[in-house]
Amino acid sequence: MGRLVSSSAVALGLVVSACLGRTDGSNLGHNLGLTPLPTLSDWSDAVSSANALTYDGDDLDASAIDPTLRATLGNGYVASPIGSTEMFVAGVFNGEQTSDTPSHRASIPSPLNARITSGDAVGAALDLKGAAFYRYTSDATMVYYVHRARSSCMVMEVEPVMNASGEADGATTVTLQSDMTVESDDLVNIQLNTTTAPNGMDILVLTATTATAESGADDVVDVAVVTSYLEPGAATKLTFDGAERKTFLTAVRTGADSESPLEDALADFLAAAEVDSNELRTAHEEAWRELTGEAGIEIAGRHDVAVAVNSSYYYLLSSVREDVPHGLSPGGLASNGYNGHSFWDTETWMYPPLLGLFPDIGRSLLTYRVQRIPEAKLKALSYDPPYAGAMFPWESAASGLETCPTWADTGQLEQHISGDIVSAAELYYRSTGDTSFLIGDGLALASSVAEFLVSRVRMDDEGVAHIDHVIPPDEYATGDDSVYTNYVSKTALLFATLAAETAEPG
Fold first, then answer.
1. Helix, strand, coil: what percent of the chain each, to 5?
2. How far apart are CA 232 and CA 111, in angstroms?
């Protein structure tokens, strides 16, 4: 397990402070012209239209509307369940490529794990349209969000309970408990530094490295988190002077997307700190509105179905973005379910509804596969005798190598995944008419998979092709000529032909 090993000086010329008993590191300049945060009762219309979920008291593991719906936040780059000690960053995994417990999303300590402990817990609400979580006590309101426009930034805001006139109504001192834990089984060389930023704000800086790379060809990943000062595991007294709001910022960057994660995280933090809190949250909400627009599925007469659909879109959109092509796992970015791996679920179940309303995000998911064609070719070569072309892994994480646990036969035998990926590419082309994709990335995907399929089939004496010894979608069965596997293989070959003929007509 990685634990805090040092509080030595941070690079970048920051002033180091060992004072762990200070007040707080909120940005006190974010307090002018505030519009009070919505109250719990303000969510009644959104709940009725299935655009918000509510939670009873301080129980965040199950929504009062549907016990299967957890409170999570994310923007496709970073995500975290509310009340969790961990957050996850797209493309950041830890663990060996093949083992009994293979590569999985790296658990990173989450500064969002904080809560109001003064007063009585009243309830909470998850805004599915504005992508923010509101927590209510008798003393204060707290809002959390992961900024859609500033992808590395996470925000918490606290304000005392206000009356109708917008004045503080009740306690002027609120207790904020940080439950952040500075440890992770997935990180090593963890260092936590208490420092003063160039703008004078007190901050915590956490740096670490993932413990194990997926393969010898990969590097471990550096992680940097810069966050407003709250002592981990301790309570902080927040004193309010009337209608005041305190804002706590976090910026996280990693070596998966930055050559200098610490410098970039600090720069992102300082840039966000220059923005008024109202403007910061408005920019986040506008980015979500720009993403979703009028897109959605309206369902009348079945509130339970509407909740299921709207929350599903929320969880999906919280896990992907068009400029971060890192796949999509069954549990989403806020979960380590299925180790955070991309399966056929991505292209077969989650991709189609995203593509229909958000084609740019659909394209991003295909880019994830295109970028990993070389690794798919290595998997094909690993068989005896070796196959040609690109045989995509049943489970894929950061590198694109097979990351299925060694105890599961699916990693070797559930081979319809390659056809599933080409089917998704064809669906993108058919729905968008994007010819440049067809003769570019579409052709690259389809032709490399077609080469694999041609080498994989067995031809009988009558010239009929067979695919022997595979696991179909029914993972408790193994046999020859799976109907589903054969079907998606045929459609993949036909699409490869279309792409090739379009690229070189005649």
1. 30, 25, 45
2. 8
Cα atoms in the 13 Å half-sphere on the side-chain side of 412: 12
CA dist., res. 222 & res. 338, Å (int): 23
Cα dist. 247→39, 118, 225 in Å? 18, 18, 17
Phi, psi of 250 (to 5 degrees): -140, 140
Q: Which of 245, 250, 240 is nearest to 29 (CA)?
A: 245
pLDDT digit string (tens) for the chain, length 506 residues: 454 433 333 344 443 333 233 345 555 334 445 677 899 999 999 999 999 999 887 666 667 777 778 899 999 999 999 999 999 999 999 999 877 889 999 999 999 999 999 889 999 999 999 999 999 999 899 999 999 999 999 999 999 887 666 666 655 889 999 999 999 999 999 999 999 999 999 999 999 999 999 987 678 999 999 999 999 999 999 998 777 889 999 999 999 999 999 999 999 999 999 999 999 999 999 999 999 887 888 899 999 999 999 999 999 999 999 999 999 999 899 999 999 999 999 999 999 999 999 999 999 999 999 999 999 999 999 999 999 999 999 999 999 999 999 999 999 999 999 999 999 999 999 999 999 999 999 999 999 999 999 999 999 999 999 999 999 999 999 999 999 999 999 999 999 999 999 999 86
Q: Which two tokens stand for residue 410?
A: 């699916």
Residue of 376, 480, 477 whose CA lies nearest to 419: 376
**Burial call 423-434: b when 16+ CB within 10 Å, e when fewer:** bbbbbbbeeeeb
Handedness of CA 169, 170, 172, 177 (dihedral sign): negative
Return the sign of the alpha-carbon dihedral for residues 386, 390, 391, 397.
positive
Which residues have CB under 8 Å from 329's CB, separation 6+? Answer: 105, 319, 335, 337, 338, 339, 340, 341, 342, 343, 345, 346
Positions of E strands within 211-365: 222-228, 235-239, 246-254
141 phi and psi angles, rounded to 5 deg? -115, 140
**C-alpha span between 133 and 127 (Å, rounded):** 6
Structure tokens at 345: 């679920």
> Which member of 274, 279, 286, 475 is catalytic?
475
* Separation of alpha carbons 27 and 200, rounded Å: 10
> Which pair of structure tokens corresponds to residue 271?
């840039």
Which of 449, 431, 298, 284 is CA-nearest to residue 354? 431
pTM value is 0.92
- Give, rounded to a whole angstrom, the gap between the first and last alpha carbons of the chain: 61
Instruction: For tokens 């005041």, name the residue.
Output: 244
475 is catalytic: yes
Instruction: Give residue 133's identity as a one-letter amino acid code.
Output: F
